[in-house]
């Protein structure tokens, strides 16, 4: 990107920040989406600071709250890890064994430079299986990537596959107008898995000031912010079949 492409944060969102955020939610095809993320990697953290993006903090806090065991030994997979914002928050809460995956090489490079991950792999969730064995992780997070044109709700069972029975999944999505159709689809998928006995909901928390809205029409009750939601689920242990 051009030098000076990361403007200082002002009260209102700089136009360049709005454009970069809008671009990744604009329904680009996947190759184009990852190219956008690669290009955004250099000023991503500055931009999300300007957005007052609270999802990484809220998700990590929710997971830590639900997590019964000492987190230091827990193996955790951070899907769509980006530059490592979620890892930083999890690390602060005692999680030390972090693996990350993302579709963008540029983002992974930034994540690698944090030194917070033991393992980082490139993977496009929704297009391919996660490069991990079944029942491998004590916890799985997907923060910020469950949205229109990004990770499809059909990929949720793949997250469950790599989670240990009794393990936790922490997912977030946005509640702004242009994501409502996706959110309804996601919630239907989450509820169906619960109906099948695959997992149990531990928490669903709607948060009003999730991040600054990039346009007036996306804003919740003209606050200038959009709202979002954190879900925490626990994978059900598979019970042995009764004999006889």
Could you give a short account of the major beta sheet? Answer: 7 strands, mixed
CATH level-1 class:
Alpha Beta
* Integer-rounded radius of gyration: 18 Å
Q: Low-confidence parts, pLDDT < 50 over ≥5 residues? A: none
State the distance separating the first and last CA atoms. Answer: 67 Å
What class do helices, strands and sheet pairing give? alpha/beta
- Please, how many domains? 1
Shape field: globular
Looking at the structure, the CATH topology is: Rossmann fold
CATH homologous superfamily label: Vaccinia Virus protein VP39
What does this structure look like?
The structure is a single chain. The chain is of the alpha/beta class. It has one domain: Vaccinia Virus protein VP39 (Rossmann fold, 3-Layer(aba) Sandwich), CATH 3.40.50.150. 33% of the residues lie in helices and 24% in strands. The chain contains eight helices and seven strands; from the N terminus they run ααααβαβαββαβαββ. It has a seven-stranded mixed β-sheet with strand order 3-2-1-4-5-7-6, with helices on both faces. Helix 4 (55-66) runs parallel beside helix 5 (85-92). The longest helix is centred in the last third of the chain and has 16 residues, at 180-195. It is globular. GO terms for molecular function: S-adenosylmethionine-dependent methyltransferase activity. Pfam families: Methyltransf_11.
């Amino acid at each position: 990107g051009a030098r000076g492409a990361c403007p200082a944060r002002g009260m209102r969102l700089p136009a360049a920040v709005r454009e970069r955020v809008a671009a990744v939610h604009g329904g680009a095809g996947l190759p184009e989406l990852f190219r956008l993320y690669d290009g955004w990697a250099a000023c991503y953290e500055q931009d999300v600071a300007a957005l007052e993006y609270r999802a990484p903090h809220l998700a990590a806090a929710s997971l830590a709250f639900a997590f019964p065991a000492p987190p230091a030994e827990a193996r955790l997979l951070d899907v769509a890890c980006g530059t490592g914002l979620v890892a930083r928050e999890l690390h602060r809460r005692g999680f030390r064994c972090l693996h990350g995956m993302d579709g963008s090489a540029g983002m992974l490079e930034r994540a690698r430079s944090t030194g917070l991950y033991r393992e980082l792999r490139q993977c496009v969730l929704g297009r391919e299986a996660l490069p991990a064995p079944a029942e491998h992780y004590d916890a799985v997070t997907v923060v910020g990537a469950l949205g229109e044109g990004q990770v499809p709700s059909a990929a949720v069972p793949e997250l469950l596959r790599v989670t240990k029975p009794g393990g936790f999944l922490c997912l977030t999505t946005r509640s702004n107008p242009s994501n409502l159709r996706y959110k309804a689809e996601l919630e239907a998928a989450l509820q169906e898995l619960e109906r099948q006995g695959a997992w149990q909901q531990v928490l669903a928390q709607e948060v009003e000031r999730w991040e600054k809205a990039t346009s007036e029409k996306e804003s919740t009750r003209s606050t200038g912010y959009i709202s979002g939601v954190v879900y925490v689920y626990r994978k059900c242990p598979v019970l042995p079949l009764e004999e006889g």
